[in-house]
Specification:
Among the domains are: 130 residues, Sandwich (Immunoglobulin-like), CATH 2.60.40.10; 226 residues, Rossmann fold. The chain is 29% helix and 25% strand. It is built from 14 helices and 25 strands.
Amino acid sequence: MYRNLSKYGLLFLFLALSGLIFLLRNIHTVENWNCHTISALYQLQSRIQASFIQGNLPTFHSNHTFCAHLGQKPSPEDELEERYLLDSIAWPGLPPRSTPNSLRQTSDPLHSLFAILPTKEGREWHVGDELEALVQMHDFQGRPKHYGGDFLLARLHSPELGAGVAGKVVDHRNGFYSALFPLLWVGIARVEITLVHSSEAVAVLQRLREERPDRVFFKSLFRLGFLSETTLCNMCLSPDQQPLCNYTDLYTGEPWYCYKPKMLSCDTRINHAKGGYLKHLITNKEALLFQSDVNIKVHIHPSGPDKINVLPQKENPEEESSSVKPELMKAAASGYYYKDTWRPLGELTMRRFNQSYGVSQCLKNKVINMYGDSTVRQWFEYLIAVVPGLKEFNLHSPKNVGPFMAVDTTHNILVRYRCHGPPIRFSTVMSSELRYVSNELDGLSGGPNTVVVLSIWAHFSTFPVGVYIRRLRHIRRALVRLMDRAPGTLVVIRSANLQALDQEVSLYNSDWFSLQLDEVLRAMFKGLNVLVVDAWQMSLAHHLPHALHPPPVIVKNMIDMLLSYVCPEKKRSQT
């Protein structure tokens, strides 16, 4: 009986609200109604909607069924570039008919081993040589694996010296892997090999990325007067379930859709927010592939010594003093730590900005524009914390969302931060503040006193890589236009970084997703006059645990590198 009364109550509420809408649209005197009554109705309606949105998520079949046509049609050149980029990050798949029947047949870090290979001269290494460690993967039964595809990380480090460098992993696709390291300091150097995901787990991640880009879902609030509705939003939505509101960007063609509210129009949209994460995406059998301390970020043991003693560089080093095969030479390290300080390899001379005065002098008369996700917002927060004269201007922006602005009137410094456009997983962003980075870049005058900092990667991990390529292509074109009209503009890109993983995080933000995006990022901006802060290697080479927002010591090194780009060390004139 009470259940029937509840149903009639909901029906009565719906009819009452419908009548109020009619009155609002036709009677101006309704504005004088008691505001307390309206507030109570609004709160009641919001609670009712919140109880329904989680239970009415759309069934997502595959992005190819209704998302392939979204966005502007790419040119033949764009299609060719995309195919090249996707081929360049292609990951070894599981061999045909080799799908394991149980966890026992998948990669096990505890049964796997690595060994340091000797040089031609024996076991003697010098600065300037390259070290190779050979990894052999085994399954949980101790049997050797005969195919590749495992996601491994390699690091050479010395806790005593506060030193570390990222290694390069080469997959031989037969269960063996080579980890290559440049030898850059004198003293002890220890090899560390980590299994991030087994090849079988990577296959699951690949499938999720292509088939379930809806596993993070979004929502928007629509409001007219006291009436409001919340609907689901995403880059791809099925038009078969209900009508769509099309918020595709007019300039870039970047698609974004929300389900149309049942009683309100599309132009009453108020905000954008992360709705949540879909659950139960994998089977119980697949879940065994994602176990903390079992097969997610677990160290592989050495079969012998895991460290070497590096001697000073030879006076007349031979061209090939290492045993490493020529095709595997040159581990691509962008820098290394020594005494917890990053030392880039290349032309840049790293400066140390240990005093706020030095930072202020470097940024004097500069406008710093930061665009992207929370990892570059962390840089904004660092600068206003270490520079006393840099005061944040109150824009009444939501905490951790922005936009933010800080000003140092004494040194004429302006620092701004704005998040990139959707998909953005922040709590709530007002619709009026959703801006695409390429459009923001087109609004900059630029010039020698303008610095642009970009960090765009973390919120794209749940989408097919083609979505990320399209976004970066628009940004690249905007940067070319900016540099054409203002050649002195300095552009710095912050790469992706490693983070802590468990089963849940792996399915949405795995380092494997980040690695693939990072490789695309570097390839797309190669040859363009932009500078890179290699957050990937800076987080991999350091001894502290991985974190989405790296600890202060790593951020400090990143900021020092950024400032070294802004204020390069002056070369002494020859006399």
